[in-house]
Amino acid sequence: MSRTGSVLWRAFLWVGAAAVAVYFVLPHGLVQNTLYNALSLAAAVALFAGARLHRPSRRLPWYLLAVGQLLFTVGDQAWDFFEFVRHINPFPSMADVFFLAGYPFLGLGVLLVVRSRNPRRDRGGLIDAVIVATGVGLLSWIFLMLPYAKDPSLSLLENVVSIAYPLMDVLLLALVARLLVGQDDRAPAFRFLGLSLAAMLVADAAFAALALGNAYADGNLIDAGWLLSFVFLGAAGLHPSMRELSTRVAETPKRLTRKRLALLAGASLMAPTALAIQAARGEHRGELVIAVGSAVLFLLVLVRMSGLVRDVESNRDELDEQGARLREAEARYRTVVEHIPAITFVQEVDRETRQKQTVYVSPQVEAILGLPPRARVASKPWLDLLHPDDRARVLSAEQRRLAGGRPIPHEYRVVTPDGRTVWLHDETVLIGDEPGLPRVWQGVLFDVTAHKLAEEALRNALKRERDAAIQLRALDEMKTTFLHAVSHELRTPLATIMGVALTLERHDLSLSTEDRLDLIRRLAANARKLARLLSDLLDLDRLDRGMLDPKRVPTDMRQLLARVVHESDLAADHVVEVEATSFVASIDPSKVERIVENLLLNAVRHTPVGTRVWVWAEPKDEGVLIAVDDAGPGVPADLREEIFGTFVRGPKANGHSAGVGIGLSLVARFAEFHGGRAWVEDRPGGGASFRVFLPATLGHEREVEAPATPSELPV
Q1: What is the per-residue pLDDT for 707?
Q2: What's the average model confidence in pLDDT over 561-585?
């Protein structure tokens, strides 16, 4: 509603009401009549202005109402001219011509409003309007028109004009009744229009009754009816809702309300009412008209009742047909719902407790969730089966869905009574009533377990593929590193061996015995280096292929450690000490010797010249703990886990090469070979402590007879 429209109709209503009050304060005469005519003209102007201001889709009805009101205004002006200027009786005169000419315009305007709102035929509303008009017309004829017709003091023209006024009122009443009984409109403009026409008709009837006894005079209280009619008519034209009165409304079922029944009953009782009034007055006139009117009313009521019966029968047949269609649709819906691979459910929400009660769940709940049929009417029983990890998320989604009223698809897991984990895709819609309160939940639950498993399998496959690609790249890098390292480790001793061999082969060189022995020692040392490298590679290959079995024999650990250190030519530049008591352990001596030898070689390669190295062993937890400690720089924390991997090489700390990167890997593999493990930790006082734990004999391992104990070897 625009602010201008709101101000105008309110101002007209209040100013008009004030003018009505002022009218009865003014003295009778020309001034009072001038205010009356001004208010009548203001109503006509308001109708024209409202049609221009609010621009309804059909302006003609409002223009016709305005013309009718304007003709009434001209008639009042002509009446005053004859009465106050020419001082003659204005009845009958041109004033009556204008008055009577205004009725058709008002009636046509009302009829167009009716047709604009509901262009379809409303047979029941039309009959109701005729019943009301016939009943009121019967009273009007008996008590208004018939007395004028039989008055011998009136001329023919006066009789015709006197009868024409109530006749026009009856015809207008029929149109007003058609407007009121055919519309269930709450628009303010509609109500103002109805009040205006009702006030005018009541005032006209009262005026006609008083005029019979010459009891009417200007300023009579009856004038309030006409004045209020002007005010209400102007307010109807200025109110913004007047646009709706020319707009077609949706067709609604017509109901015979109590007010409508009361109106029809009152109209039907007009004939006996007329007889009762005449009997009270002792009069007997118009009996034939009353009889005819009673017959007409009876026939109209009979037609109306037959129409109602037909409507009831038609509605019953339509309801039966709709019920059959509904049952058929329900059967089709149930057939479709109960054959799709999903759970369909419907829940109703109690308006008072707000609790949800499931009224239908499709049979698939048994196949998908393993719930028995009796559990179908429980309150969404699958919520009780929610996976613990998904419960909070699902309940939160339910609250958001309840607050927003919008569907929130989500997926969650449930654990069925038989222990299966089922993934559900939940599509639930909340349907609310007009006030916005939740009324019904409708939803579909899809079993997406296979989809989720496929997604998981795909993710695992992609992860395995990525891991394999990473491993392949790592293997490629290790192969390159290995080839570089092996080529260096092979080339250096081979070059030395070749050089020494060629030198010893020459006969033209005269070498002293000491030089010759030195060359032979170098030749032997490099040959042992090659032998160690080949042994490591062969052992690594045999371990990968599972071709080795531990051959445990009782072995004196101190003697084994002393022998390895004594026979090693790697620790010449370091101070190596063996710290071990004499005890016997069941081990594979050759493999343990390789463990100690590789740990000792690792310490020599990665510590500065002259660094102290300790080799020790002790019984521990029904096994043996072997360790090689050094006082070198230690092992960085980020290398301690991967340093036992194949082809992983640490930084060299002296003139020795970093090696191929398989020595510590063999240590770890030989430890696992015995059922133990290898690790590195910080040595108390600085340096690194490489440790190997070998457990006692396992049940499936073979223990052989121990050889003769050798004599203790010096360190």
Answers
A1: 43
A2: 82
